[in-house]
Structure formats: C-alpha cells, structure tokens
Amino acid sequence: MQLLEERIRRDGKVYDGDVLKVDSFLNHQIDVGFLCTLGKEFYRLYRDSGVNKILTVEASGIGVACLTAQYFGCPVVFAKKSKTSNIGTDVWSAAAHSYTHGTDHTLVVSKSYLGAGDRVLILDDFLANGCAAKAMLALCAQAGAQVVGAGIVIEKAYQKGGDDLRALGLRVESLARVASMSPTEGIRFCD
Amino acid sequence: MQLLEERIRRDGKVYDGDVLKVDSFLNHQIDVGFLCTLGKEFYRLYRDSGVNKILTVEASGIGVACLTAQYFGCPVVFAKKSKTSNIGTDVWSAAAHSYTHGTDHTLVVSKSYLGAGDRVLILDDFLANGCAAKAMLALCAQAGAQVVGAGIVIEKAYQKGGDDLRALGLRVESLARVASMSPTEGIRFCD
C-alpha cells in the first residue's frame, strides 16, 4: 500500500537491534484518520470472507482493530497478555514470546468471546517472528473458530513469521512489507 | 446516558470485591458500533473545547479513545504502563497504582507526543479511585499541556476519584455514574 510505505519512509525511524519505530502514528500516538484508511483497505481485502469477529492483542493492535471493525460491522476481541483478577479462569490461552520486549507471556481470551461459529480476522500492527499471530491461531483452534486470514500493518518480510503463517495455508495480507532496513541504509520495501 | 445504563444493567456483572465486569462490550470484547455512539456523546459534550489530542492509558482505554477521536478529528496518545525498549528515555512519567490488578506501575508518554500547545481530553473506560486519571493529569502538567476535561465511560461515584478530580477544578463527564452496586442488590445509578 503506497500511502503506508510513504508514511513509514517519512515518519518511521530505524534503530539498531531491528527496531522500526512508527510510534508517531501507529502504536503510541495514533493517527486515527490514517488508521481508518488502513481499515478500509483491510475491509476491501476481506469484505467477502464473512468476517464476524476481529481478534488482536493488547495493546498496540487495539487501535487499528477497532477502527477497522467499523467497516466490517463486527466486534473486536483483544487477547490479554496475562491473567487479570477480572477475567476469570474460563479462558483460552496460548504462550507467546515478545522479541520486542524480551518477555514471555500467555495470551488469554475469555471463552465467552471466541467460539465455534466465529469467522475471525486476525489483525496486528506488526508481523516479525509471528509469535503473537501463532498464539492467536492457537486460541482460535482451541475455540473451534475459523480463521479467514490475517491483516498486518507492517510485515518484516525478512523474518520468518510471514512465511511460517503462509506455509500453514493462512491468508496473510500485509499492507507494507519491509524487505530490509538499517539505520544507515534506510528502509527497502518488497516489490 | 440512558443507553449505556441499560447496557450495563443488561450485560454487566457485579462480583464481590467491587468488580463490575463489562468485558462483553467495553474492555475485552469491544462492541465497536456501541462505542462509536459513546464517542459521539463525548464529542457532543466537548466539541467546543478545542480538543486537539485525546490521552488515555493502555490497554482498555484505547478502543473508546480511538473511536471517539474520529469525531474530534484529532490523534490519540496512549500512556504506556512501563518503559519498553522501544520508547526511549525521553518520556514524561508518573506513578500510578491499579486497584483492579493490585499493581504499581509508571505511566509514560513520549515527550514528542504531548507538549505545550496541546488541548487534551483525557478518556478512560473506568473512574474509581482516580489513580490513572491523576497520573494522566501529572503527565499533562509536566508537558505544559492544557487539560480541557475528562471523559469517563463508567464512574464508580461512590469512590473518591471523581470527587477528587472535580475538587481540582477539572471538568469530568461520566456517561454512567454508579451510585452503588453489589452481587445481590444489583446496580443503582446516580440520578
């Protein structure tokens, strides 16, 4: 998606340690109008897939998930990163590792909000190693929910997550695919 | 807001320990269309206040903040609950205690995204003891940003947060104000 690539080139910052910082518009400050444009693109891609639920992970996926869900007319469910005293024990759960934060955690979703009959679009801001997406797939499998595909804002295509998911037969639509990046050379997108 | 009170009566669950669970539509599963209706109400209340930024806290505030921000045509900034390796050290920060989760944490916002010249609407899903709201006020004070008010989905009016904030001279608009609640007696709203 050219508009997104231009925005990443303009506002994204690349740091050592494989960090692409886009927190001016995507995941700390949120450019809501721009994310609506991304949401419309996800809708264009998946409008015929019978999506009735969007699943994402707290916290950085919630904005794009909510703004996208408007076009689908469906609810969002966000997986939580650890059990809280409020959520009860009646949850689907799957382990996930965050390379960004160097932490292990468990993603949990209440069994009340994900089940058989759901046709799920998985959405997230980033896809790199694919740990979060795979954990969300696991949650859907436990629930008996059907996953129609994944919608990703930025895929680091040089990491294995996207390939892994596609090898599973999952449809993965990434609005921007980074082929390579470095603080000195900048960002190159896949053709 | 009658529509919200009806929804809370219908779908909310009260548990011992002062827990009002509304995670079927507000903060785990998100009824996006309904939250847009709440967002329009926040816009009606604050449309003349010159809001140019909405500030909330991850994770449960992000959905309502993003869906509300559409009507204001302004960005959202969400405070993060701890420093991450991505956010750098150039942050405003304030301590906060979560009674819900029984945890202490520090709210941080990048100095790049909150500053003098900002006219901030603070939004959150719940107001109880007011710790999160006060921490957001502290962040805005550090930044030299002006706070035009707070918009709260559900205020536990029998706790001190709302009174504390109003005593500071802050405009606080809560769409539902719970006067009392218990698992046996149910929920009573303020008149």
Structure description:
The structure is a homodimer of 191-residue chains. In chain A, helix 5 links the parallel strand 9 and strand 10. Chain A is built from 5 helices and 11 strands. By secondary structure, the first copy, chain A, is of the alpha/beta class. Chain A has one domain: Rossmann fold (3-Layer(aba) Sandwich), CATH 3.40.50.2020. Chain A has a 6-stranded mixed β-sheet with strand order 5-4-8-9-10-11, with helices on both faces. At the A-B interface, strand 3, helix 2, helix 3 and strand 5 of A face strand 3, helix 2, helix 3 and strand 5 of B. Strand 3 of chain A pairs antiparallel with strand 5 of chain B.
Q: Numbering strands along the chain, what is their spatial order in the largest sheet of chain A?
A: 5-4-8-9-10-11
Q: How many domains of chain A?
A: 1
Give the helices and strands of chain A as they follow along the chain: HEEEHEHEEEEHEHEE
Q: Residue ranges of chain A: pLDDT <50 for 5 or more in a row?
A: none
Largest interface summary = A-B, 40 and 40 residues
Strand content of chain A: 35-45%
CATH architecture of chain A: 3-Layer(aba) Sandwich
Tell me the major beta sheet of chain A. Answer: 6 strands, mixed
Q: Using the CA coordinates, give the radius of gyration of chain A.
A: 16 Å
